[in-house]
Cupin type-2 domain-containing protein (Methanoculleus bourgensis), 134 residues
Amino acid sequence: MTKTSTSNLTRLTYHRIYTDSQGDSHFDVVTVEQSLARAAPPAAPFYVSEDRAASKYRFYTFEPGWIGELHPAPTRQFLALLSGEVEMETTDGTVRRFGPGDLVLLEDTSGRGHVTRNTSDGYSTFLVVPAPAP
């Protein structure tokens, strides 16, 4: 069993795809700080980040072999992969593979966008939470 250090609990990271001023997309990694808090008394304290706006959610399920050709995101949204494996490619040529538990923020709502491919043998399902601009 691997011990988890406190520094791993106070910081979360997720992937982000954004558009530059030329309309090309790129990956970035974002770090979110958490602190120990009594967020749900009488439950014991746990690690919590600051609140961010969100008001709805949906699911995306991609069939085996599905390819979303170069496209911008329909809205700024978080995608949490629940099952399967996908790869995403930005216009700068970077390709990243994602599996269950990975989180991606799509902010490339303009420009050329990105490509998404279902690379698993089965279906891939995302929990999608539209996120208004901060």
Observations:
- The mean pLDDT is 93.
